[in-house]
Amino acid sequence: MAGGQDNQGFTLIEMVVAVIIIGIISSITPVVMSKSVQNYEMNQFINQYLADAIFAKNFAQYMKKSVIITINAEARMYTMYDNFTKPLIVRTIPKSICFPQRNFVVRYTGTGAISQGHTLYFTNESECYIGAESMVKLTMPVGNSVYAKSK
User: How far apart are CA 90 and CA 120, in angstroms?
Assistant: First the structure.
């Protein structure tokens, strides 16, 4: 190449633009991933709770005894009892999940029926109030019905 420059590499402006784009993308990613992790934890917890509620109903029917599920939001756990005497299941509540009601009791009779209808609210920790956008509502009518899940 006589009299010309060999154009290999990037200019300073191109490098600065590339670094800015990478910075913007990397600043957005943790926010998106954080919400995804919270939603995953909430869905996993709700599915586990629903499975435990079905177990409580079936156990109450089979053993012909009352089964009680107590949710203690301050202690971040829920416990299933056989007639309030013996813990059958003890589970922890992930830190990202909030119960605006704080404490809650569900009683299954010896026939497996719910003795009192109730609504249980779950949300993520950053929006801990009833009516929050991320609120999930589990409604259980009196009797042998199953939970109805809604947003």
Answer: 18
Cβ count within 10 A of residue 76: 14
The whole-angstrom separation of Cα 76 and Cα 94 is 7
CA distance 77 to 10: 57
Residue 57 belongs to a domain: yes
pTM for this one?
0.73
Q: How confident is the model at residue 121 (pLDDT cuts 50, 70, 90)?
A: confident
Task: List the domain range (segments joined by +) for residue 99.
Answer: 12-150
Q: How many CB atoms lie within 10 A of CB 109?
A: 17
- What is d(CA 19, CA 72) in angstroms, rounded to the nearest whole number? 48
Which strand (E) or helix (H) includes residue 119? strand 118-124
Residue range 61-74: mean pLDDT, rounded: 88
Q: Which residue has the higher pLDDT, 115 or 91?
A: 91
User: Cβ–Cβ contacts within 10 Å for residue 115, how many?
Assistant: 14
The token pair at 17 is 């633009």
Determine, yes or no, domain membership for 48.
yes
